[in-house]
Design a protein that fits this description.
With 69 residues, the chain is of the alpha/beta class. It has one helix and three strands; from the N terminus they run E-H-E-E. The chain has a single domain, classed as 3-Layer(aba) Sandwich (Rossmann fold), CATH 3.40.50. Helices cover 23% and strands 20% of the residues. The chain has a three-stranded parallel beta sheet, with no helix packed on it. The longest helix is centred in the middle third of the chain and has 16 residues. The mean pLDDT is 82. This is Transcriptional regulator. InterPro entries: Peripla_BP_I, XylR_PBP1.
Length: 69
């Protein structure tokens, strides 16, 4: 039995580029044999300072400074 991995995606879904990255990750997960459970928090900025509190196996993120956008 394969282990299921919990992966959080920290992206700003209001940005076109970030939505394309999220779409690409989804396509990769569907087309591969990896068993990932993906999470996309509504407000990704709340997790930028303390991502270890997310209780996940991995994080894929765009850490642009949200204050500059």
């Amino acid at each position: 039995m394969n282990q299921k991995y919990r992966v959080t995606l920290l992206f700003n879904a209001n940005k076109v580029y970030d939505r394309q990255i999220i779409q690409g990750i989804g396509e990769y997960v569907q087309s591969s044999d990896c068993d990932w459970e993906l999470f996309i928090p509504e407000d990704f900025t709340t997790h930028l300072e303390k991502p270890h509190h997310l209780n996940v196996d991995g994080i894929i993120a765009d850490f642009d400074d949200p204050k500059k956008h």
